[in-house]
Amino acid sequence: MTIKTIIAGALASVFMIGAASAADLPSRKAPPLPPPPAPFSWDGFHIGVSGAYGGGDASYSSNIYSFGGAAPFFGLQTSNSFGTSGYLVGYQSGYNWQFANGVVVGYEDEFSYADIRANSNSFVGGSAARIQWFGTERLRFGYAFGRFLPYITGGLAYGKVRSSGSDFVNGALFMGNNQPVWQAGWVVGAGLEYAVFDNWSVKAEYQYTSLNGPNGASVGFPGAYRVYQGNHLDTHIARFGVNYNIKSIGALIGWDNLGL
């Protein structure tokens, strides 16, 4: 074996050891990029509070029977209409389902204390009305533009209404102050909701609601009696609200944080 052969073998051994050591060094490749955030979804439960202003009109018909006064009569039929206005404050809750094409279908219920009453509590031949409590059970249909959700809505409306007021008819004084009654009707509307954060959204909504108005009877002085019924009690409602959006029942009651 010559000296040249020995030197060549030694150099080859050095290069092989260096290559093996380099293979053992940690990789210097850049870390993988994080996955893009999932697109916002309207799926899940929501609960919130809202305030509203309502105004509209009402109409009543009456049959009046008089046995006294300046000109006695029997079975006089009268009707009249008047405007209403007032406010509502309450809560809403519901659930949304969002499909892959962006369509959102939801269900929402709401319940509010209301003070919507006649602009004038007295007119001839009828009795004024006040909505004391108001609620709806509605379906919602919308299309999601990311965090924007325009929608239409409609369903059942109900309210607790009460008649009151005083009227002079042909010399007879009628006092109307009947017990409040629950009454059902219908509601349609449209709105826009925007998710300010993942779990918080704000909404503006218009509703048109229709109830019949209260029915009742009252005794007049002297010697008169009246029976009246509502023809309609319609209200335009502008509502603003805030919702807390929950993606699951587990998140609502804290199970998700426990890994259940």
From TrEMBL:
* Localization in the cell: Cell outer membrane
Q: Which organism is it from?
A: Methylocystis borbori
Q: What top-level branch of life does the organism fall under?
A: Bacteria
Top-down, what is the taxonomic lineage of the species of origin? Bacteria, Pseudomonadati, Pseudomonadota, Alphaproteobacteria, Hyphomicrobiales
Give residue ranges for domain Outer membrane protein beta-barrel. Answer: 51-245
**Family statement:** Belongs to the Omp25/RopB family.
> Which of UniProt's keywords are assigned here?
Cell outer membrane, Membrane, Signal
According to UniProt, the name of this protein is Outer membrane beta-barrel protein
Give the range the annotation lists for the signal sequence: 1-22
